[in-house]
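Quick question, first post here. What does this chain look like in 3D?
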Amino acid sequence: MENIVVVKPCGSGKTRQACELAALLASQGKRVLYVVPTRALLLEVYEQIRAHGARVEISAGRSADRPPVNCRNPLADLSDAAGFSLLSFCQTCHFFNSCSYVEGRAALTIPGVVRVTTLAFLIWNRVPFGTADVVIYDEMPLWFEIPKRYLHLLPEPYRSAVVKFEDLPSPIRREARRYHARFGTEAPGGFLIPRLLAGRERTLILTATPIPGLIEAMVGGEVDYSAEGDFFGVDQRVRWFFCDLPHSREWSPQASGCGFKKNTRPGLPYFRASLGLGQWRGQALDVFGSYQPPWHVFAILAFLLQTPLKIDPVDVMFDHPPQEDPLGLGQRMRIPSWTLSFERDGKAIPIPWLLRAADLAQLLGRSGIGVENNYVGAIPLAARNTVWQYRLAREISLEGYSPRDVAREILMHFFLFHRQPLDAAVHAYPGLASLLDKRMVAAIRKRAARIRSFVEQFNSHILAKGN
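> Answer (accepted):
Ran it through. C-alpha cells below.
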C-alpha cells in the first residue's frame, strides 16, 4: 500500500486527470472511492467520471434542497431541527425503500464502480464503506469545528481524533473564549481531525497546498510527495500590496476563503473560494483580505496531534521591490516576520502560514495558469526560515506596502527574537524610527509577551501529559 500526495498548481487540471484515472481504474475492475470537500465538486466529479464511460455512484449527506437532492420528505428537516433521531425518522418514512440517501449510506465499494462522496459524509456516516482498492482525496483534507448542539453526533473513534472544548488545556480555552467574546459568538463544542480511510493498494491526495505533518497524522503513516519541478500553489505572477485588511467577523476552518473579496465582476461581494468553479479562467483577479486565523485554532490542532508548538522566525520573500520604499525593504528583498510551527519528527512545520496561504492560492487559482493577478493583504506567497521554505506563486512583485503595517510586522519579529528589540529593529531598518510611537511599541511588546507565555504554558501541558 502506498500513500502519495500529488502536488500541482491550482488550475493545472488535477481534478480532470484524477477523474480520468478513476474511470480507468474502474474499467480494470478496481474498487475506487473518490472523496471531495464540497457537494458542488461532488456533482462536477460525478459528471466527469460518467463522461468517461465509467459506472459512478454518489453517497452524500441528506439534503432536501441543495444538490444533489436525496431526500423527498419535507418533514425530515423539521424532525432534525427538533432533535429527533434522523435514523429513527428514516425508518418510518414512506420513501425509505426508494430513498437515495438511505441507499448511499448503506452502499459499499464495488468492483468496477467509482463511488463519489464528501469528506464530511465519509467521516460521519456510521455505515462502513468497506475496503476500496484506491482512494482519491481531491484537495487537502482539513479539520472540523463541531457546534455544541452536534456533540452527541460525533463520528466513530476510528474515523477521527476529537477533543471537546471543555477538555482543552486552560490556556487554549482562555484564548478561545476571549476571541469569541470579542465577536459576540459562541465557542464550538469540539474539534475534529479526520482519520483518512486508506486504499488497499493506493491512497492519493491531490492538492496545490499540502500541509506536511498534518497529512501524515491524518493518513496514519508515511507519505510520498510528488511535485513537478518547483512548488507553486499558483503558476502565476502576483502583484502584491502588503497591508493588514480587516477580515470577516468570524473565522472557522470550514469557511474556506472567508474574508477575501473578489471584484472581477460587479455585484459579487465576499467570495468563497469554492472548489470546482472554473468560470473565471483566464480573467485577472483583484483579491483583497488578510485572513488571519486566531492562535487558539493552531494550538487545538497541536493538542489533537499531541505535538509542541514553536515560535519561528520567518523571512517573507518577494522577487521585485516596490518603487516607493520608505523602509528600504528592497535592500534585503525580505520582510522579517514570525509564525507558530509544529514540531513533528524533528521538523518545524509552518502549518499556520500554509493554512493562510492555501485559501489565497485556491482563490487566485480560479483564474488559471499564467494569469497576472493583484493581491492586497498580508498573506505571504513565499516564505522561509532556517528549516523550511515554500513558494506559492511563480513570481511575486511587491508593488507597495503600508509603512505602519510593515513596521508592526518587523517590530513583532524583533520583540520575539532579540534581547534589545527596538535598537536592533531601528539599526536594521532606519526608516522605522519615524513610524514608531509609544502606543505601537507598548501594544507589540504586550502581544509578544502574551504569545511567548501562551506557547510556554501549552508546551508544559503537552510535556506533563506525555510524562
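Residues 247-276 have pLDDT under 50 and may be disordered.
Residues 11-140 form a domain with the Rossmann fold fold (CATH 3.40.50).
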